[in-house]
TrEMBL record:
Organism of this sequence: Microcaecilia unicolor
GO biological process, alphabetically ordered: epoxygenase P450 pathway; xenobiotic metabolic process
Protein name, UniProt field: Cytochrome P450 2A5-like isoform X1
Encoding gene per record: LOC115479933
Subcellular localization(s) per the UniProt record: Endoplasmic reticulum membrane; Microsome membrane
Top-level taxon of the source organism: Eukaryota
Length: 494
């Protein structure tokens, strides 16, 4: 081979190599995964994740890896979205792609692939659409449900009066009041505050809520196949769910015995009627297991989240008595003392509206958000996210985004007020998540928070045995769920 041929061949090989390199780099750039810390075998990045204040720790990680990064929670890759812009782009701008529900083993043992909260595809679409329409039929978002909340507020006020200004933990009272609203829809009746069965059901909800938020709950969720064989607090979650499920099944059977298809009394009746209508439809997802899972989700979420927000809110008011005093002034000016507060009053109460919004923002009840899942291979902000990847759009990072809130780590009603003192909406206010998976009970929760909080402040002033400067409003625990520290409060008649 002469020198000219060898030189030509060498040049061809070089050009071919460069072409292959270019193609490879192009494919790599197009399909590259988000950045993230190097995982260890089996446990992934668990040692690098804060065991308390998880969302806050993940926000810290985003400072290094950016608003879109990957973590291995155990052996599975998860993508974290941090900050308002990234979360909005995923949940709202690309709602369909990011609208899947990631699997949560700790809840899966209860719902077992049924219901509207932890499912995907047709079962989710059918059950969610039915549930939303049925809740509307029973007045959710309308005057009808507001009257139920106002009525329940009067029962709550009466129970508070019985405390005779003595300090007590308000957890049970708030849980009972909020739960009775959803119970009146789902079960067709409310419970008396001294009902022992009611107390037991609420205890199961509260206990499971606490364990789910603990490190034991997190370990069970990641290493389910191993942890279910080991003793520990995580095993109480299954027992709690069993108690709740048995009660729902008992109520459903009672309803079946006296069911009138032409006159449904509650949500369970409507579901039973739908089951009968769909029994010949092989593609229907309306069955007893789906009923149990759906009612369990409504009962659980409709009790714990709003009551915990109320509990957090009154702790914050004990910390800032000047805010409580300003609320009293606005309430007294806007509503007659003998009148029950209603949503219409909110238009004349910008400061109260701002305080309630700030309580929801600051309490940050579901900091990690429930897990989402991408429904197809997707390119997002320059990265490739494979179909089925679990996504955590951090609500904490949205509600505490410094580009959206001037002083995100402080409680400040001014976040929702303009320079004239009028209420100001904020796009980054996402305590109920956003997009296709937004909480269907958002309207109900907002109405409950307003009516219960204002009804109490109409009639009582708050008193604590602690000086305001000694009151700690940081969360007692903040993992999948967040809740306030224990406290006692005295309600002094005004």
């Amino acid at each position: 081979m002469d020198a000219a041929v060898a030189q030509t061949l060498f040049l061809a090989v070089c050009l071919f190599s460069l072409l292959i390199l270019f193609i490879w780099k192009s494919m790599y750039q197009r399909d590259k995964l988000p950045p993230g810390p190097t995982p260890l075998p089996f446990i992934g990045n668990l040692l690098q994740i804060d065991t308390n204040g998880t969302a806050k720790g993940l926000m810290k990680m985003s400072e290094k890896y950016g608003p879109v990064f990957r973590l291995y929670i155990g052996p599975e890759m998860t993508v974290i979205l941090s900050g308002y812009e990234a979360v909005k782009e995923a949940l709202i701008d690309q709602a369909e792609v990011f609208g899947g529900r990631g699997k949560t083993e700790i809840f899966e043992q209860a719902v077992q692939g049924f219901g509207m909260t932890f499912t995907n595809g047709e079962i989710w679409k059918q059950t969610r659409q039915f549930s939303i329409m049925t809740l509307k039929d029973f007045g959710v978002g309308k005057r009808g449900i507001e009257e139920r909340i106002q009525e329940e507020a009067q029962f709550l006020l009466e129970e508070i009066r019985k405390t005779k200004e003595l300090p007590f933990d308000p957890t049970t009272f708030f849980s009972q009041a909020v739960s009775n609203v959803i119970c009146s829809i789902v079960f067709g009746s409310r419970f008396d505050y001294d009902d022992k069965e009611f107390h037991h059901l609420l205890q199961m909800i509260n206990e499971s809520y606490c364990v789910i938020s603990s490190m034991w709950g997190k370990l069970f969720d990641i290493f389910t196949s191993i942890m279910k064989h080991f003793p520990g607090p995580h095993n109480r979650i299954r027992r709690c769910f069993d108690v709740l499920e048995k009660y729902i099944v008992k109520k459903a059977k009672q309803n079946q015995e006296t069911l009138d298809p032409n006159s449904p009394r509650d949500f369970i009746d409507c579901f039973l009627i739908k089951m009968e209508q769909e029994k010949q439809n092989s593609s229907s997802h309306f069955n007893m297991k789906s009923l149990t899972a759906t009612v369990l989700a409504l009962f659980f979420a409709g009790t714990e989240t709003t009551s915990t927000t109320l509990r957090y809110g009154f702790l914050i008011l004990l910390k800032y008595p000047e805010i409580e005093e300003r609320l009293h002034e606005e309430i007294d000016h806007a509503i007659d003392r003998e009148q029950s507060p209603c949503q219409e009053d909110l238009k004349r109460m910008p400061y109260t509206n701002a305080v309630i919004h700030e309580i929801q923002r600051f309490s940050d009840l579901i900091p990690l958000n429930l897990p989402h899942q991408v429904t197809q291979d997707t390119h997002f902000r320059g990265y490739m996210i494979p179909k089925g990847t679990q996504i955590f759009p951090l609500l904490h990072s949205v509600l505490r985004d410094p580009t959206q809130f001037s002083d995100p780590d402080s409680f400040n009603p001014g976040h929702f007020l303009d320079e004239k003192g009028n209420f100001k909406k904020r796009d980054a206010f996402m305590p109920f998540s956003a997009g296709k998976r937004i909480c269907p009970g958002e309207g109900l929760a907002r109405m409950e928070l307003f009516v219960f909080l204002v009804s109490i402040l109409q009639n009582f002033s708050l008193k604590s045995n602690k000086h305001p400067k000694d009151i700690d409003i940081s969360p007692a625990m903040s993992n999948l769920l967040s809740f306030p520290r224990f406290y006692e409060v005295s309600f002094v008649p005004r």
